[in-house]
From TrEMBL:
It catalyses: 2 reduced [2Fe-2S]-[ferredoxin] + NADP(+) + H(+) = 2 oxidized [2Fe-2S]-[ferredoxin] + NADPH; 2 reduced [adrenodoxin] + NADP(+) + H(+) = 2 oxidized [adrenodoxin] + NADPH. It comes from Equus caballus. InterPro entries: FAD/NAD-bd_sf, FAD/NAD-binding_dom, Ferredox_Rdtase, Ferredox_Rdtase_adrenod. The gene is FDXR. This is NADPH:adrenodoxin oxidoreductase, mitochondrial. Residues 56-212 form the FAD/NAD(P)-binding domain. NADP(+) binds at residues 201-204, 245-246, 257, 422. Keywords: Electron transport, FAD, Flavoprotein, Mitochondrion, NADP, Oxidoreductase, Transit peptide, Transport. Monomer. Interacts directly with FDX1. GO terms for cellular component: mitochondrion. Belongs to the ferredoxin--NADP reductase type 1 family. FAD binds at residues 65, 86, 94, 130, 415, 422-424. Its EC number is 1.18.1.6. Its cofactor is FAD. It is found in: Mitochondrion.
Length: 508
């Protein structure tokens, strides 16, 4: 039971109040200026020492970083209350809108996040865009601490001529489209061409290549949107090139994802053995995961497949290939200038050693004809608010282990803290660390003292601005609707794409 003790008087301030009544008094009293309870001469600040009693913390963003930070805070502080603000009507960030539909096992983390959301010390407030509907200074005023976990919502531009041509898409938008991100639901990429080029050799590039090339019937039982499935069924794309500016030793994808590509039904890989010359000796020096990955690439490029694999490859109707040492220089237009017709690539060579290896142009170029270009060179965070420092070069909020530099009480976690790389497990570790720093600061008395109103104050602000947040139980209604819509076609869910329809379903 929480004890509210007037230490100087040595007696309880509200001895007659049961804890629940006390909470009611505390909540309803805010935001009016409260006189101290009768007979008490202490200031409100001294009475409650709320920071120790009930720290009010808010987290911005409900992706893995937001939920793992909340989980850590709730687990390690017995009274902390955490409000999670999310701009979408639905939670879970890239777990819903990024992770590929054919990787359902990755989405199991949603069960853990749901447990966190069900805590009576945690509340989800969707449909609230921080930076627009409510500012970070307003949140800081209302809470003892604010954690920014809003991810990386933009894509890294290529910065080359022709990037804006129809037929050029960021992988971010393409992924958002097949995963039902409301802002990308109208993307409708034209897949009537024979060849697609993906720029970048990370795991997102492989996700996109796999979705483009997987026989659509294999995606029918996933949560890919029906609209995307319809377009993929009509696709005429036969060849996908995945282009890297550096070499096989520098690819950013991982072995599990490469293996999946190599075994993708109905497809065969094309790798140029010349790209792998001299690599056999060099891989001895590299760390084990990179060594295993490069060995798999090397085997695929240079070894003759066994009879069964050779037969499988011979019957494949689609191909995919890795092109190395090619840096995008210009997107080439069709003769009428209205559509992409190809990509000009600068041939590169490597300079430097180890992590500092850089691709430098040799002066040669190569034109690769294609009707679709997907740029998969990374995501990018945006600044959220003028009050929050932001490093535009690194695309992160400057921080020391999650403490935002020069702004006490402000923290960050996830991709906005360390940049747009790392899997969910990496994001979990760094979010736990941020949570730990916050709790350390709380314990050390470094956070604002005195009570903070938390959501009560923000709710009033949002209401005055006509913003109507949705709760976690609202999400559970939408979730049930999606699951029910998927049942007819044997899918785990059919995602709702239109925020207006979602609000209507919630009776708004
Ligand atoms: C295409 C893709 C596929 C991936 N697949 C895998 C995989 O298979 N396995 C794996 O382990 N990892 C995968 N990852 C990596 C993983 O998704 C990330 O590590 C993780 O999602 C980062 O978490 P985050 O919370 O920082 O960002 P996010 O997941 O992006 O969450 C940020 C949240 O903040 C919200 N937000 C943004 N701005 C605001 C605002 N102004 N106000 C309120 N809310 C806001 C967003 O809507 C979002 O919900 C993938 C990444 C991508 C891009
Ligand atoms: N299945 C999974 O586990 C999964 C799925 C998807 C994503 N993820 C994770 O999510 C994170 C983000 O993935 P990502 O693929 O977006 O990023 P990434 O891993 O950083 O890969 C980006 C790729 O783009 C290239 N690139 C960057 N700038 C370029 C430029 N200007 N011109 C040409 N090429 C350029 C990079 O090459 P250089 O190396 O030369 O810079 C690299 O090949 C990663 O950590 C990834 O592992 C995981």
């Amino acid at each position: 039971m929480e004890k509210f003790t007037d230490t100087s008087a040595g007696r309880s301030l509200v001895p007659a109040m049961a804890p629940r009544c006390w909470r009611w008094w505390y909540w309803t009293a805010w935001p009016r200026t409260r006189p101290p309870p009768a007979g008490c001469t202490l200031s409100v600040r001294q009475q409650f020492s709320t920071q120790e009693q009930t720290p009010q913390i808010c987290v911005v963003g409900s992706g893995p970083a937001g939920f793992y930070t909340a989980q850590h805070l709730l687990k390690h502080h017995p009274r902390a209350h955490v409000d999670i603000f999310e701009k979408q009507l639905v939670p879970f960030g890239l777990v819903r809108f990024g992770v590929a539909p054919d990787h359902p096992e990755v989405k199991n983390v949603i069960n853990t996040f749901t447990q966190t959301a069900h805590s009576d010390r945690c509340a989800f407030h969707g449909n609230v865009v921080v930076g627009r509907d409510v500012t970070v200074p307003e949140l800081r005023e209302a809470y003892h601490a604010v954690v920014l976990s809003y991810g990386a919502e933009d894509h890294q531009a290529l910065g080359i001529p022709g990037e804006e041509l129809p037929g050029v898409f960021s992988a971010r938008a393409f992924v958002g489209w097949y995963n039902g991100l409301p802002e990308n639901r109208e993307l409708a990429p034209d897949l009537s061409c024979d060849t697609a080029v993906i720029l970048g050799q990370g795991n997102v590039a492989l996700d996109v290549a796999r979705i483009l090339l997987t026989p659509p019937e294999h995606l029918e039982k996933t949560d890919i949107t029906e609209a995307a499935l319809g377009v993929l069924r009509q696709s005429r794309v036969k060849t996908v090139w995945i282009v890297g500016r550096r070499g096989p030793l520098q690819v950013a994808f991982t072995i599990k994802e490469l293996r999946e590509m190599i075994q993708l039904p109905g497809t065969r890989p094309i790798l140029d053995p010349a790209d792998f010359l001299g690599l056999q000796d060099r891989i001895k020096e590299v760390p084990r995961p990179r060594k295993r990955l490069t060995e798999l690439l090397l085997r695929t490029a240079t070894e003759k497949p066994g009879a069964e694999e050779a037969a499988r490859q011979a019957s494949a109707s689609r191909t995919w290939g890795l092109r190395f040492f090619r840096s995008p220089q210009q997107v080439l237009p069709s003769p009428d200038g209205r559509q992409v017709a190809g990509i000009r690539l600068a041939v590169t060579r490597l300079e430097g050693v180890g992590d500092t290896t850089r691709a430098v142009p040799t002066g040669d170029v190569e034109d690769l004809p294609c009707g679709l270009v997907l740029s998969s060179v990374g995501y990018k965070s945006r600044p959220i608010d003028h009050s929050v420092p932001f490093d535009p070069k690194l695309g992160v909020i400057p921080n020391m282990e999650g403490r935002v530099v020069d702004v006490p009480g402000l923290y960050c976690s996830g991709w906005v803290k360390r940049g747009p790389t790392g899997v969910i497990a990496t994001t979990m570790t760094d979010s736990f660390l941020t949570g730990q720093m916050l709790l350390q600061d709380l314990k050390a008395g470094l956070l604002p003292s005195g009570p903070r109103p938390g959501y009560v104050a923000i709710e009033a602000l949002l209401s005055s601005r006509g913003v109507r947040p949705v709760s976690f139980s609202d999400w559970e209604k939408l979730d049930a609707e999606e699951v029910s819509r998927g049942q007819g076609t044997g899918k785990p869910r059919e995602k709702l794409l239109d925020p207006q329809e979602m609000l209507r379903l919630l009776g708004r």
